[in-house]
Design goal:
Elements (H helix, E strand, L loop, with lengths): L2 H29 L2 H27 L14 H30 L8 H29 L4 H7 L4 H29 L3 H30 L5 H11 L5 E13 L2 E10 L5 H18 L3 E9 L14
Helix pairs in contact: 1-2, 1-4, 1-6, 2-3, 2-6, 2-7, 3-7, 4-6, 6-7, 8-9
Pfam family, one: Cation_efflux
Membrane topology: Multi-pass membrane protein
InterPro entries: Cation_efflux (IPR002524), Cation_efflux_CTD_sf (IPR036837), Cation_efflux_TM (IPR058533), Cation_efflux_TMD_sf (IPR027469), SLC30A9 (IPR040177)
């Protein structure tokens, strides 16, 4: 994922959520709807999340230092994980609490047209934001399904914005259901039910985001297709005859570490081996542009001797 593409989707979501949050809080003040309060907190939390993603992207661009020789690319993963925590605590848990309180102490809605009008506006704004996230994701996900894209994406921003926008749209529909049912029946319990459903939705999305960003924080290898490209680029059949073993690790969304022990000709001179390593590194970088940190160790391949057959008793 390009940094610019991710930033465009984040900024679109940030603008939409700030405008929606203001409208929801105004609707809550006039109507007393707990669904609107929960949705207002949700939008405010989402706005904070997008600010965190932008901050993480900025911090990740810092140059490598002696203390952090591989750079700060993983800052984006850390801030992505913080987003899942904020979404769970501020968005999900608060909505669950507010829904419980509204069911326990229901009251009729006042000025029902405020929450209905704000929800319709919010659905339109979130749809536009979601459309931008889908458009940006389609440019990088290739033939992957949406679930595969969320699981395999090395840049956390687009999957996070996608899931947040999806959660926001579904949450708005749930809020509209709760408010509509409360208006139709005159029973404020339905407003609380809608709020509880929003809380469950946000908790589920937060758990999915936490699981995915945790995997990135622990360190993920290159995608299978990229690993195959690296293997094909390493072995030229002449100076490099085979790969003895290889490891890859994402130092950040767009920076890949490649470490491999490669087999060279046993009678090559030191100068020949050095030239072979330089050429192999160049082939890797040409094949996979994100492979920026490469360590190759030359060796002579020694096949493991076959195990001696055991005598039968």
């Amino acid at each position: 994922m390009s940094a610019s593409g991710g930033s465009k989707a984040i900024i679109a979501a940030l603008g939409a959520n700030l405008a929606i949050a203001v409208g929801k809080f105004v609707a809550f003040i006039f109507s007393g709807s707990s669904s609107m309060l929960a949705e207002g907190v949700h939008s405010l939390a989402d706005s904070g999340n997008q600010a965190l993603l932008l901050l993480g992207g900025k911090k990740a661009k810092r140059a490598a230092s002696e203390e952090h020789p591989f750079g700060y690319g993983r800052e984006r993963y850390i801030y992505g994980f913080l987003v899942s925590i904020v979404l769970f605590t501020i968005g999900g848990v608060f909505a669950l609490y507010e829904g419980y309180e509204k069911i326990k102490h229901p009251h009729e809605l006042n000025d029902w047209y405020w929450p209905v009008g704000v929800l319709v506006f919010a659905i339109i704004a979130e749809t536009l934001s979601f459309r931008t996230a889908i458009k940006e994701s389609n440019e990088v996900r290739g033939k992957l399904s949406w679930s595969q894209f969320v699981r395999r994406a090395k840049a956390p921003e687009l999957p996070i914005v996608l899931l947040e926008d999806l959660g926001a749209l579904v949450g708005l529909i749930l809020a509209l259901f709760g408010v509509g049912a409360a208006i139709a029946t005159g029973n404020g319990v339905w407003d609380g039910v809608g709020t509880l459903c929003i809380g469950v939705l946000l908790v589920v999305i937060a758990i999915v985001l936490a699981a995915e960003t945790k995997s990135l924080l622990l360190g993920e290898a290159a995608d299978p297709a990229e690993r195959e490209k690296i293997r094909a680029a390493l072995v030229d059949g002449d100076s490099v005859t085979r790969i003895i073993h290889m490891r890859t690790l994402h130092l950040g969304p767009e920076e890949l570490l490649v470490a491999a022990k490669i087999a060279v000709q046993h009678d090559d001179s030191a100068a020949d081996v050095a030239r072979a390593i330089d050429a192999a590194e160049e082939r890797i970088r040409t094949s996979v542009s994100s492979a920026r940190v490469i360590y190759l160790e030359p060796d002579v391949y020694r096949p493991e001797p076959a195990a001696a057959p055991t005598a039968e008793a």
